[in-house]
Amino acid sequence: MLVFSGNVTKRILVLGLASVVLGLSGCSSTNYPQVSEEERFVQPDYNYVIGAGDSVQIFVWGNAELSTSVTVRPDGKITTNLVEDLEASSKTSTELAREIESVYSEYIKNPVVTVIVNNFVTIPDHQIRVVGAGASPLKLPYSKHMTLLDLMIAIGGLNEFADGNKAVLIRRFDGDQSTYGLRLDSLLKDGDITANLALKPGDIVIIPEAWF
């Protein structure tokens, strides 16, 4: 019977996960197109939307007793000092403020509400995910003007077994999915800035391990 060390087992699991995800994308890791030059740094018109796990501060001007800080529950709702089960997920802070004003107008005259978001999580469709052989695979909220290089800095680069130039980007738009090749080794090891590109909300980066 073969017995693997903890590090070897971890490598097998990571490589297997990346292979499964690549398989689900319907392509092999060697023949993906690159993001076109015209699209490489196109930035989306992006507004942050609230998601489960976000902390929101609610200020009701002139009514300090109604001001509060709450965390958006896993069901996407919040409970305030006046209202239970108010939907917050998938709304901008301005949209949520206007919704609270509408609800509070039943109790106080001409409420003025400001919502400030802390502890950013956002909704899953707006998160950036890294799977496979990054130094610290993770998910994080998309930030406006975020690039692939920014993402690599956030995860601490590649681990020692990564095959960075066979990494792929999975991107969904209007229900369609596209897969593109990435050149992470060229970007991080060779300083080839042409391998950098703008990210978009919901992007998934899959980094396989090299076969030795």
UniProtKB/TrEMBL annotation:
Domain SLBB: 128-207
GO molecular function, one term: polysaccharide transmembrane transporter activity
Highest taxon listed in the record's lineage: Bacteria
This protein's record includes keyword Signal: yes
Keywords: Cell outer membrane, Ion transport, Lipoprotein, Membrane, Palmitate, Polysaccharide transport, Porin, Signal, Sugar transport, Transmembrane, Transmembrane beta strand, Transport
Subcellular location, record wording: Cell outer membrane
One annotated GO biological process: monoatomic ion transport
Membrane-topology descriptor: Multi-pass membrane protein
One GO location term (cellular component): cell outer membrane
Family matches, as InterPro entries: PEP-CTERM_polysacc_export (IPR017477), Poly_export (IPR049712), Poly_export_N (IPR003715), SLBB_dom (IPR054765)
Keyword Cell inner membrane tagged: no
Membrane-spanning residues: none
Record-linked Pfam families: Poly_export, SLBB_2
Start and end residues of each Polysaccharide export protein N-terminal domain: 43-117
Principal location listed in the UniProt entry: membrane
Coiled-coil positions: none
NCBIfam families to which the protein is assigned, alphabetical: pepcterm_export (TIGR03027)
Protein family: Belongs to the BexD/CtrA/VexA family.
PANTHER family membership: POLYSACCHARIDE EXPORT PROTEIN GFCE-RELATED (PTHR33619)
Protein name in the entry: Polysaccharide export outer membrane protein
Source organism: Neptunomonas antarctica
Lineage: Bacteria, Pseudomonadati, Pseudomonadota, Gammaproteobacteria, Oceanospirillales
